[in-house]
Amino acid sequence: MGGVEDAASAQNAGRGGAGAVDEGESAEDRQVAALLARRVPELNFDAVALADVIDFMRDVSGANVFVDWGSLEAGGIDRATPVTLRARNVSFSNALDLVLTSAGKGNVPVGYASKDGVIHVTTGEQLDRLVETRAYDVRDLVPSEIDMKELGLMVRSSVAPDSWRENGGSVGALHTSKHKMIVTATGPSHRKIREILDMLRDQPRQAKTEEAATAAQGPAAPKQ
């Protein structure tokens, strides 16, 4: 059913250089973020018990995965719940999302969050109670790539919009300083925020790569 491969995105997820710092995240959680960014070559489950699928995910990744079976069973999902899924070349994070979506069958929101190097799998209701405050250093993005106010609006409109207190929710809060965003949110929301920041950081590199490739080709031949 495939193993887990390293990818360039894993380096981005785990990097700790200037502009990539999440000051509320432990070293263990940065390692988990790098693991979640790795690629899974293939997944092929045909009505396989959820407990067996989770064991497989642990084995191929080396991840420390804790499943809150009590909360899942209260929502109608148990160890024998069948998972059917076929996918190729997806990130471990996406693979886990697909597995949990299959198990929930659209009826019970199921997700995960990482804390102190452990991936916690539980219901969406329980995840909403696991709130953390983290500081994101965005000095490499503000103001060269995006204005701080615009960045805050992007996060609140793209990541669980109904959860932010500014939008009438009861969980999320976002405050800004000159170079930092201080965010209180659930684990899944923090994961999405990192994805947005990584995307913004990758865009200039992609543009420079394309410019270099164009320059390497030399000037276009004159039309005849």
Shape from CA axes?
A: globular
CATH topology of the largest domain: Phage tail protein beta-alpha-beta fold
- pLDDT under 50 segments (min length 5)? 7-20
Q: Percent range for helical residues?
A: 40-55%
End-to-end gap: 55 Å
How would you write the strand order of the largest sheet? Answer: 2-5-4
Query: Structurally, how many domains make up the residues?
Result: 2
CATH 2nd-level architecture of the largest domain = 3-Layer(bab) Sandwich
Name the helix and strand elements from N-terminus to C-terminus, one letter apiece.
HHEHEHEHEEHEHEEH
Q: Name the structural class.
A: alpha+beta
CATH class of the largest domain: Alpha Beta
SS element count, helices: 8
Tally the beta strands.
Answer: 8
Per DSSP, what share of the residues sits in E-state strands of 2 or more residues? 15-25%
Q: Sketch the major β-sheet.
A: 3 strands, mixed
Mean pLDDT: 85
Rg is 20 Å
